[in-house]
TrEMBL record:
Keywords: ATP-binding, Cytoplasm, Kinase, Nucleotide biosynthesis, Nucleotide-binding, Transferase
Organism: Gluconobacter wancherniae NBRC 103581
Family stated for the protein in its record: Belongs to the adenylate kinase family.
UniProt name for this protein: Adenylate kinase
InterPro entries: Adenyl_kin_sub, Adenylat/UMP-CMP_kin, Adenylat_kinase_CS, P-loop_NTPase
Length: 191
């Protein structure tokens, strides 16, 4: 089973995708993690992405679409995948549908994690990696820019999935465990 996790920055997409990977063996495909790996390896994509991400903006659609097309074609994705951070624009959502049709794949559910903006800001302010470091794009002024980009470019794709009857809303303000249980219930219903 393949699913999409949608939601603003800090909504808990990565947290829940990791839980699903551990509990169900589905593969987490985090475009944020993939881009951070490109940045760390100083690849041509990473060198371009670094400045874009530091401003809280989106990496161009063609790069992201190609990255996802390559990733979902890997053998480990046949056991099911979770798109975490993709699609983020209308153009990405449309390209994803075309790509999935071509590959005879489908998406069982599009799950939106709903979290109030003040809660997002609070969560991101306290987020640190394993080494205790804050991500450059988690600085407060960049977080404000990312929330605006979400409102302007990602929120408009919600009606696209709502119209197709594929959008499932989950209250992302609950505990990590309760959000996970709500997602489990959806997956049980659609499987
Ligand atoms: P991402 O890496 O996807 O960043 P994110 O949206 O901030 O994180 P997420 O929602 O996964 O939150 P998390 O679980 O960590 O993107 C980074 C950047 O990459 C983008 O800004 C963009 O520049 C670029 N990019 C990525 N994809 C792209 C695309 N498709 N197109 C163009 N550009 C792209 O949770 C946040 C915090 O909350 C954690 O500290 C966690 O512990 C806590 N938390 C989680 N759930 C909780 C809960 N239920 N209760 C309390 N706390 C909780």
């Amino acid at each position: 089973m393949n699913i999409i996790l949608l939601g603003p920055p800090g909504a808990g997409k990565g947290t829940q995708a990791k839980r699903l990977e551990t509990m169900r063996g589905m593969r987490q495909i985090s475009t944020g993690d993939m881009l951070r790996a490109e940045v760390a390896a100083e690849t041509p994509i990473g060198l371009d992405a670094k400045a874009i991400m530091a401003k809280g903006q989106f990496v161009p659609d063609p790069i992201m679409v190609q990255m996802i097309e390559n990733r979902i074609s890997q053998p480990d994705c046949t056991q099911g995948f979770i798109l975490d951070g993709f699609p983020r624009t209308e153009s990405q959502a449309e390209a994803l549908d075309v790509m999935l049709r071509k590959k005879d794949m489908n998406i069982a559910a599009v799950i939106l994690l709903d979290v109030a903006e003040d809660q997002l800001v609070e969560r991101i302010a306290s987020r640190r990696d394993e080494a205790g470091m804050r991500r450059p794009d988690d600085e407060p002024d960049v977080v404000r820019a990312r929330l605006k980009v979400y409102r302007d470019q990602t929120a408009p794709i919600l009606p696209y999935y709502e119209k197709g009857g594929r959008l499932e809303r989950v209250d992302g303000m609950k505990s990590v465990e309760d959000v996970g249980l709500a997602i489990d219930a959806i997956l049980q219903r659609v499987s």
